UniProtKB/TrEMBL annotation:
<feature type="domain" description="Tryptophan synthase beta chain-like PALP">
    <location>
        <begin position="47"/>
        <end position="333"/>
    </location>
</feature>
<dbReference type="InterPro" id="IPR001926">
    <property type="entry name" value="TrpB-like_PALP"/>
</dbReference>
<dbReference type="GO" id="GO:0003941">
    <property type="term" value="F:L-serine ammonia-lyase activity"/>
</dbReference>
<dbReference type="InterPro" id="IPR050147">
    <property type="entry name" value="Ser/Thr_Dehydratase"/>
</dbReference>
<dbReference type="Pfam" id="PF00291">
    <property type="entry name" value="PALP"/>
</dbReference>
<protein>
    <submittedName>
        <fullName>Threonine synthase and cysteate synthase</fullName>
    </submittedName>
</protein>
<dbReference type="GO" id="GO:0030170">
    <property type="term" value="F:pyridoxal phosphate binding"/>
</dbReference>
<dbReference type="GO" id="GO:0004794">
    <property type="term" value="F:threonine deaminase activity"/>
</dbReference>
<dbReference type="GO" id="GO:0009097">
    <property type="term" value="P:isoleucine biosynthetic process"/>
</dbReference>
<keyword id="KW-0663">Pyridoxal phosphate</keyword>
<dbReference type="GO" id="GO:0006567">
    <property type="term" value="P:L-threonine catabolic process"/>
</dbReference>
<dbReference type="GO" id="GO:0006565">
    <property type="term" value="P:L-serine catabolic process"/>
</dbReference>
<dbReference type="InterPro" id="IPR036052">
    <property type="entry name" value="TrpB-like_PALP_sf"/>
</dbReference>
<keyword id="KW-0456">Lyase</keyword>
<dbReference type="InterPro" id="IPR000634">
    <property type="entry name" value="Ser/Thr_deHydtase_PyrdxlP-BS"/>
</dbReference>
Amino acid sequence: MVLTKVFCSKCGATRENFELVCTTCGSPFIIKVSGPYEKNTVSNYDYFETPIIPINLKTPIIETNQFMAKFEFYNPTLSYKDRGMNTLFSFLKYKKFLQEGDEVSEDSSGNAGASFAMFSKILGLKATVFTSVSANPNKMKQIEGYGSRTERINGSRKDVENSAKNSGLKYLGHQYWPEFYDGFRVIAYEIYEQMEHMPDNILIPFSTGTLYLGIFEGFSHLLQNGLIESIPTLWAIQPEKASGMYNRLNNIDREPEPSIADALTGVLPLRYSLLSSIIKTYGRCEVISENEIIDAKQYLLNLGIDCEYSSAITYAALKKFNLGKSSLLILTGHGIKNL
Ligand SMILES: [Zn+2]
């Protein structure tokens, strides 16, 4: 059986109840896993009994003559966010933090909001999703379709977050809960289970780094167990216009702007120091122009792969950096979200 531990990313203090950040120093929490890897994915999580939706449903990995791609848009709400929401909501339900009829809030640029809305519906919660006025209208429709209210805020990403936090509802901001990003460990496990050989490169769309961090933790766990020899190079890919991580790593002073890759917000990640040390050791962080993203989406569509701009950015990076066939793209959201 695995053992997970939640503690402060800065001072190491343990989380006592359900506080969002460390009560000693105000830093975000992180989660670490240890112990034997289990082939049955649910057994790699010790903080809930039964997941709300089964997490042994693997998303496909396809192979072309140029690259491989994992179709994370095969999740119920058509984006990888369901992986994280599934573990987070399973945890909160198991710990009785959520009860039917609770009024909850979240802030999101769209895909997380859609997933949050679906899980809220399943648990009978009354949900409100706060988004920016520039949010993708298709994603808003999807959120409302699952029965959640939406509130559009005219302001920065931080203003949207503060509106959700100060709404008087139970705030479930997915960025803060380590159980959210811990759901992405499964992606690394599936890559290990599904592929005959590990890829050399994994290209990951990067917004606030939760996907990147979760995949890294999954590979670290496999490495601890001696099941893989090394961690593939993990590429963190951002739009030039929304590249908070890249800019800080390279001492560039530039405010994020909305990109056509609307799921990638480009704010500075909450767990910046941890992410920067992982990127420096195991990966690279690179940026892609709007035109390169647009071309990449069309190219993938011509192959019959319909993903959103925020996912096509990985193919643009493969091309830009001339990466070989042993590269795996993580295609995070479906193209229908950009219609
Ligand atoms: Zn602390």
